[in-house]
Every structure is written in structure tokens, then in C-alpha cells.
């Protein structure tokens, strides 16, 4: 039962919000093809579709009948518009980003060093 109800609602949705309602006009295509076939015996169905759908809508003797074919006129005017409530827009405040550079300052205690000791390496050896 759920499957039948879901198919029913899907069908209602598709036919009311899309151009699927044009599929109801398919019998008109075959009737109009037979009308053209009575006039021209060599007319194939593909050439019929080519005449009516690939070359625009020229105003000829059966223009009104051509406009009854599916997908020849704009969207059906009785289409039910679906409602959509848009959420409240969210406003963002751009904050200025500050990067704090952390520098490491090393302080050396130089009181214990004797620079003379290191320089004594380069002196010539002493003899006793």
C-alpha cells in the first residue's frame, strides 16, 4: 500500500511541477503523423519529427495543429508552483586576524668566559 501511495504522490508531483504533463499529448503526435501520411505516402516518422521539431515552427497551413504537439508551446500555465521558504540569511562579521610573532631572545651570561684563553691557542709554544 505504501508503494502505491508513494507512486501516486510522485506522479502528482512530476505532472504538476515539470513538463511531464506534455506526455499526455503523445496521441496527438500519432494522429498528426497519420494526417501527414495521408497527404504524403513516403513520409517516415523520423522525417515527420524532423519537420515539426528540428526546423522551428514555420507558419504553414496546419500551424494551429502543429502547436498542439507536445513540447511546442511554453510551460503549461496551470503548473502548481512549489513553495520554498528560504532560511534567514546569516550575516558574518569579518574579524581582522592578528598574528603575533613569538621571538625567542637568548641572553648569555658572558662573565664566566675568558676570551684570552681561547686566543692562546694560536700562540707559539713556549720553551722552559
How does this structure look, described?
The radius of gyration is 44 Å and the shape is elongated. The chain has a domain at 2-66. It has helices at 2-17, 26-39, 45-53, 63-66, 115-119. The termini are far apart. The model has no long low-confidence stretch (mean pLDDT 78). Helices cover 38% and strands 0% of the residues.
Please provide a brief summary of the model:
The mean pLDDT is 78.
Class derived from helix and strand content: mainly alpha
Helix content: 25-40%
Count of discrete alpha- or pi-helical segments spanning 4 or more residues: 5
Our measurement of the CA-to-CA distance between the termini, rounded to an integer number of angstroms, reads: 118 Å
The strand count comes to: 0
Mean of the pLDDT scores?
78
Along the chain, the helix and strand elements come as: HHHHH
Q: What coarse outline follows from CA principal-axis ratios?
A: elongated
Strand-residue proportion: under 5%
Main sheet summary: none
pLDDT below 50 for ≥5 consecutive residues: which ranges?
none
Q: Radius of gyration, rounded?
A: 44 Å
Task: Describe the secondary-structure layout.
Layout: H1 2-17, H2 26-39, H3 45-53, H4 63-66, H5 115-119
Question: Which terms would index this structure?
Answer:
128 residues, single chain
